[in-house]
Amino acid sequence: MKNWTQNISFLILLFTISQFSFGQKSSTIKGKVSDGKLAIEFVDVVLKKVSDSTKVASYAVTDASGNFSLENVLSGDYKLQFKLIGFKTITQKVKIADSPISIGTITLQTDTNLLNAVVVKSQKKQIQKTDEGFIFNAVSNISQSGGTATDMLKNIPTVAVDADGGITLRGKSPMILINGKNSAITNMDQIVASSIESIEVISNPTAKYDANAESGIINIKLKKNNQSGMNGAVVLGGGFGAKGRLNSSVLLNHKTDKWNFGLGYDNRFAGRTKKIKGERTNYLIDDEHFINQNRSDQRTEGLQNLKFNIDFSPNERNSFSFEALGNMESQDNDETLHTQVNTSTNQFFSNNVRHSLELERSKVGELAFGYDRKFADERKSLNASITSSFNKHRENTDIDTFNYDQYNAQIGDAFLQRTHNYEHENISNAIVNYAVPVSEKSIVETGYKGTFRFFNSDFQSADMTNGEYVINPLASNGFKYNEQINAAYGMLNSFIGEKENPKWKYNLGLRAEQVSNNGKTQNNSDNFSNHYLKLFPSASLQMNLASDEFVKIGYSKRINRPDLDDLNPFIDITDALNPHGGNPYLKPEIIHIAEMSYNKDWSKYSFSTNAFYRNATNTIRQYAELQDNGVILLQPRNIGSTITYGLETIFSLKSIGFYDANISVTAFQQNINASNLAQDVVNNAFSWYGKMINNFVPWKGGKLQIIGNYNSALATAQGKRIPIYNVDMGFQQKLGSGNARLGLVVTDMFNTLESGYKNNTLLFSNNRTSKSDTRALMVTFAYTFKSDFKEKLLENQFSTE
């Protein structure tokens, strides 16, 4: 509580200081754009300072009447650009003082010779490169409308998603942020794809970011409209896989000179099926020697999100924001597991059928307060935020198990069980970032981030005895966990050479993180605490070979802290022969990373590649251990050290007017030294994955997208996961004047997506495959009202540059 009081007091002080600038005046630029006869809608209006044409000072888009307005513009000399596909770009100089400016009507001239070139530039905005990775415009991914964030991530370059929803970058799980902050939403299936504005992949984070990002960071930015006036959009969709699916989205917004109000709602309801097959051989156990399992799941999913935001800008220098997000998820899973066990001579040993009905309910609430301060010097900035998210998860399961003899005759009565797992979690963040120029060529960035996490789970298992459910104390437990991370960083950004075209750019950073965590179980059998202070340096050097070509090298030290699922010692016995649980005694991984990248852009092509080297100690991996009773217990373990090196490549092309593509491939080698564990741990393995995004414009107003994914076999601690591959297709057609869209989506067109693994150790071999009804067809209809909305839910529109 003391830390909270200090953080809140500090932010209130910042807000108070900012009020001294409230009396400053702002200017507005207004005008209209036409082709000489009719008004032109959706013209990009870009304002840049004459002294620094690399940065956008303000941006707008014309409405249905051709009007535009640029507000809160500081005084100075500017260049004003008007750009639209099929028209010549017009640039004119304007001088801004304190009074509003009206530039009248701007007339654009059509230019068919420039049409294809401008189309190329617009469609390249599907991926926007940054100094630390790239930003993917999620709205352009029409092949996943009606899906979730997990489905969307399957089609992001360099990101690998397996058939069970596991997300990796360069073979490791990344840190996932929502709107740039840690969130209680950790399951990406809790986010509807239609609510996502963009996805940022930070493959080379600096000291400014959390050190707990070994393979990088994925930041999911949710939609937030800021167009002037009253506007909005609605999307309706329906379809089927093995069962029916429905989704809808509504987004409303009203913006004035100083206020911006937004309200959004989306939902998704779907039925799913899954088939799982497992085979295991226990080499040294004669009775339970051959085990064959077949599982069938029938699942119904429901997801609803409600978002509300208020922004207030009393002047051009200060802005305040408030956001509230509510999430409700339900999952009803009806599962039947058939297990057949034979002896080493392949004679009958046991046979049972276990049926369970699992009902899950989750509620997440998030609150976020933010403040941004601008200065006359655009290189100087201050922002602060406080966020808090709460998650309540309830899971109730009824289980019945029937035993059969070798002739499939039932033995005795059914064994009845009942379990519940109740979880409560709170994650809060306090963040302050400040950047100040220290010379004409150098900027110092500093900041603080406090992360506070509290988690409490209660698991109870009861067996039916004499007509009553009696709690089984050996299979029941509670777990409490709290963690505080206080981090501070400092970073120097500078360049050598001309300001407009520097020859060299470099940054040096250092982050300090003080971590304190405590955990205990209800029966006090597993208590732990871990407190440490660690430093994480980072550095990079970039040489610009040309305005569109550069080489960059970098180094950073990072950490991989075990998450709650890794630490929670509770053993899940849903499958009695294959239980799994956490390990409260895990140590964090420490990783040293070196990278070298090359980027080059041409008029119709772009190419980037990144070679990386990663050296990790105390590597955390899932490890399966055969117990004396024939049960295999799966738990995370520190398996030793791992060296990973590989190459990540993205290639984009726009060879002809109606087609463009993006191809990405990641390949890496892993060398594992697990001398602290058994000798049957995999020592080295090569893995790769790639995807190709194909975009077609077959006719006016139509878009066709075909995306192919392939993930090779991926090494695990004791074997490998099987390769996975699939093809998704999406089509979208403008209707009428363009305010409406009709879409068709087919996911996993050839029904090839499945997951599984193969383990082969000295004590056992284990094969498992899982196949869901991933092939599905969805039809969507989307409509915008009021043209200022800029088709956020419908069109491939992105940021100003």
Notes on the protein architecture:
The chain is mostly beta strands and 801 residues long. 5% of the residues lie in helices and 64% in strands. It contains four helices and 45 strands. The chain has a 22-stranded antiparallel β-barrel. It is globular and about 90 Å long. Mean pLDDT is 83; it is low at 10-24, 112-124 and 787-801.
Descriptors:
801 residues; mainly beta; 22-stranded antiparallel beta barrel
In short:
By secondary structure, the protein is mainly beta. It has four helices and 45 strands.
Main sheet attributes: strand count, strand direction, barrel closure: 22 strands, antiparallel, barrel
Strand content: over 45%
What is the CA-atom radius of gyration, in angstroms?
Answer: 28 Å
Structural class: mainly beta
Unreliable residue stretches: 10-24, 112-124, 787-801
Q: What's the helical proportion of residues?
A: under 10%
* Overall number of strands: 45
Number of helices: 4
Shape: globular
Kindly, what is the distance between the CA atoms of the first and last residues, rounded to a whole number of angstroms? 43 Å
Tell me, rounded to a whole number, the average pLDDT.
Answer: 83
List the helices and strands and how they pair.
Layout: H1 2-18, E1 27-34, E2 44-49, E3 52-61, E4 67-73, E5 76-83, E6 90-96, E7 101-107, H2 112-123, E8 127-130, E9 133-137, H3 149-153, E10 159-161, E11 167-169, E12 175-178, E13 196-202, E14 217-222, E15 229-240, E16 244-255, E17 259-282, E18 290-312, E19 318-342, E20 348-374, E21 381-404, E22 410-437, E23 442-465, E24 468-471, E25 477-497, E26 502-521, E27 527-546, E28 549-560, H4 564-567, E29 571-572, E30 580-581, E31 589-601, E32 605-617, E33 620-626, E34 632-638, E35 641-656, E36 659-673, E37 684-696, E38 702-711, E39 714-715, E40 719-721, E41 724-735, E42 740-747, E43 755-760, E44 764-772, E45 776-785
Parallel strand pairs: 1-7, 12-14
Antiparallel strand pairs: 1-4, 2-3, 2-5, 5-6, 8-9, 9-13, 10-11, 13-14, 15-16, 15-45, 16-17, 17-18, 17-44, 18-19, 19-20, 20-21, 21-22, 22-23, 23-24, 23-25, 25-26, 26-27, 27-28, 28-31, 29-30, 31-32, 32-35, 33-34, 35-36, 36-37, 37-38, 38-41, 39-40, 40-43, 41-42, 42-45, 43-44
